[in-house]
Write a structure and sequence with these properties.
Layout: E1 5-7, E2 13-15, H1 30-33, E3 49-50, E4 53-54, H2 57-75, E5 80-84, H3 90-104, E6 109-111, H4 114-128, H5 138-142, E7 145-149, H6 153-156, H7 158-171, E8 174-178, E9 191-193, H8 200-213, H9 219-225, H10 229-239, H11 243-250, H12 254-266, E10 270-274, H13 276-279, H14 284-298, E11 307-310, H15 317-322, H16 340-348, H17 361-370, E12 375-379, H18 383-386, H19 390-399, E13 402-406
Parallel strand pairs: 5-6, 5-12, 7-8, 7-10, 8-9, 10-11, 12-13
Antiparallel strand pairs: 1-2, 3-4
Helix pairs in contact: 4-14, 8-10, 8-11, 8-12, 8-14, 11-12, 17-19
Length: 410
């Protein structure tokens, strides 16, 4: 969101929404409205520290350079790890990625966005060949059907939610919420499907089978722009032979499942918005692709008011992915699987370009705990609190030879 901030003569800071910004058009949620309260010095880190004691910048930077150089010399570039975050600016993400992959020679850089968006990354690559989100925020306002899957948008993306509600009033758009929980988002929806946890794939495979059964497919689009369609339909029909079978498997009323399927089949401008309820799942990638398949089969993608749309949990998850801030990616959505490595190496003039994917977030901290990663740099996040199995992460940090933390707060 766009947020102009002003400092008064007495030092007081005020913030407001930017009316010209294309994401929030002047609106702010409670978090944005309270930004002025975060600029105080309470808990703020104002200078570098070495072993808990204040130090000059030169000494701190020299220490980092010396310890990293020593680890690389003694144990190789894969003894270095960077754990970055969606709290970084895209430019910062890019420089960190370039440093470790192009000049240290390791791909051991991952991000807290891994915990938020990895399923979407894998699903997008499986569906489209690269990690892209085939939609824009304006699609929310141009849709006649908005399907929210595993997303409490009212709380987690309140500005986007207000844009959806405006579309509902102006276009009489229908909103369907698919979530085991009855969240605040359900209060304004037209249909709530409280499916059993883990049954999303069955529900959307059933939708794909229904679309085929009622002749709602875009055969020309499927023929021109997709592959593997017959196999996908066969699997969907085997998984979900009837609406009643889907309803039983998902713990839903058959009438509600039928209503959702008929709404989707009849509504050309349909957007499916999914978030952490889909992404943070043992079968998250399959859930993503089950959703994407329904849009590909109907040609409801790449057009105004249509498409599958992953909304993120981290503030700059997409920015990090754009510049290759994940262990298995390179900048500009390129990867390690083809000539992209040489292309990036030439562009960066990188003397020690990494040639293979590195350690992902969880594996990186395991490696720090068992001695494979000797030097770890953490930027703009606190994995000791936010990572799965945080106790193991804290133990790893304790036993890692050298840990650098770049942050604004203690």
């Amino acid at each position: 969101c766009g947020v102009p901030a002003k400092v008064a003569a007495d030092g007081a800071v005020s913030v407001r929404g930017d009316p010209d910004h294309p994401a929030n058009f002047g609106r702010l949620c409670s978090k944005g409205s309270a930004l002025a309260e975060t600029v105080g010095l309470e808990g703020r880190l104002l200078y570098p520290e070495i072993d808990g004691k204040r130090a000059p910048w030169e000494d701190a930077l020299d220490r980092v350079a010396q310890r990293f150089s020593r680890a690389i010399e003694e144990f190789g570039p894969d003894s270095i790890g960077f754990y970055v975050s969606g709290q970084l600016l895209t430019e910062d993400y890019y420089v960190a990625n370039k440093l470790i992959k192009g000049f240290i020679g390791s791909a051991n850089i991952d991000t807290n966005s891994r915990l938020c968006m990895a399923s979407s990354v894998a699903g997008h690559r499986r569906a489209f060949g690269e990690d892209i989100v085939p939609g824009v925020y304006e699609d929310f306002e141009e849709a006649d059907l908005i399907v929210l899957v595993g997303s409490n948008t009212a709380w987690c993306h309140p500005i986007l939610y207000q844009r959806m509600l405006a579309a509902r009033r102006q276009r009489r758009a229908n909103i369907v919420v698919i979530d085991p929980r009855r969240t605040a988002t359900v209060d304004e929806c037209d249909l709530h499907l409280p499916l059993d946890p883990g049954t999303d794939v069955l529900l959307f495979n059933g939708l794909l089978a229904h679309l085929a059964g009622v002749g709602a497919l875009d055969d020309a689009y499927v023929s021109a722009h997709t592959s593997g369609f017959d196999e996908a339909i066969s699997l969907a029909l085997a998984d979900a032979p009837s609406i009643e079978a889907v309803a039983r498997g998902c713990g839903l009323a058959a009438a509600d499942v039928r209503m959702f399927y008929e709404l989707f089949a009849a509504t050309e401008r349909a957007v499916t918005i999914y978030s952490q309820g889909v992404n943070q799942s043992a079968h998250g990638t399959d859930k993503v692709n089950a959703i994407v398949n329904c849009h590909l089969a109907t040609g409801r993608i790449g057009k105004p008011g249509t498409g599958p749309f992953s909304v993120t949990g981290q503030p700059n998850a997409m920015g990090g992915r754009e510049v290759g801030g994940l262990a298995n990616q390179l900048a500009a959505h390129m990867n390690f699987e083809n000539a992209d490595v040489e292309r990036v190496a030439r562009f960066w003039r990188a003397p020690a370009m990494a040639r293979k994917p590195g350690l992902k977030a969880v594996d990186m901290f395991r490696a720090a705990g068992d001695g494979r990663v000797k030097a770890l740099w953490i930027m703009g996040t606190n994995p000791a609190v936010s990572m799965p199995d945080a106790g193991r992460v804290r133990t790893a940090l304790k036993y890692c030879d050298f840990v650098v933390v770049s942050d604004v707060l203690r």
